[in-house]
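Customer escalation, tier 2.

The customer says the design service returned an amino acid string that "doesn't look like it belongs to this structure." They asked us to rerun it and document both sides in this ticket. The original structure tokens are below, unchanged.
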């Protein structure tokens, strides 16, 4: 996958800036070919590709899982990147099944899919933050459908 300094929520327009934080993923089955380091500037008048992110495994499924983990571990601060779009692709049924074509973006992608949020997770985060700020040590009951929780689905695999 190619990691670009582009904003997929804004028609993939270039996103320039200084990489205030740049930490590529590592681990078994992960390779990153990049040309940038923390502190470098992403210029407007040059190819916005930051890196090529490659994963491999014993099966397509394993390689996809490693790619999702690598995307989640990739830290790039200072510009928008195509990483959220890449994660969307990796989790899409058409891609995971291998039944897709060159019209994938036109058929399946709209910027709205990147902006969808799990309201239950926002509530949990707000309650935790409030509790920590108030230094309370009490049990809090939050009514959230755990099976639909994006955090549970993506972080507890």
């Amino acid at each position: 996958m190619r990691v670009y300094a582009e904003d997929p929520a804004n028609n993939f327009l270039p996103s320039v800036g200084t990489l205030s934080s740049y930490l590529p993923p590592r681990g078994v089955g992960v390779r990153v070919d990049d040309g940038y380091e923390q502190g470098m500037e992403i210029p407007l008048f040059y190819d916005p590709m930051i890196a090529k992110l490659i994963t491999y495994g014993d099966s397509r499924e394993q390689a996809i899982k490693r790619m999702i983990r690598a995307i989640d571990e990739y830290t790039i601060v200072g510009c928008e990147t195509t990483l959220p779009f890449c994660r969307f692709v990796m989790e899409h049924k058409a891609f995971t099944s291998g039944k897709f074509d060159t019209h994938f973006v036109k058929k399946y992608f709209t910027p709205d899919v990147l902006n969808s949020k799990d309201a239950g997770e926002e509530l949990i985060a707000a309650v935790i933050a409030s509790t920590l700020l108030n230094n309370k040590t009490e049990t809090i009951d939050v009514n959230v459908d755990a099976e639909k929780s994006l955090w549970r689905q993506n972080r507890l695999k």
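Tier 2 assessment: The sequence is consistent with the input. The helical segments are 60-73, 83-91, 93-97, 104-108, 112-115, 119-133, 150-155. The beta strands are 2-4, 6-7, 13-14, 17-18, 21-23, 30-34, 41-42, 49-55, 75-77. Sent an explanation to the customer and offered a walkthrough call.
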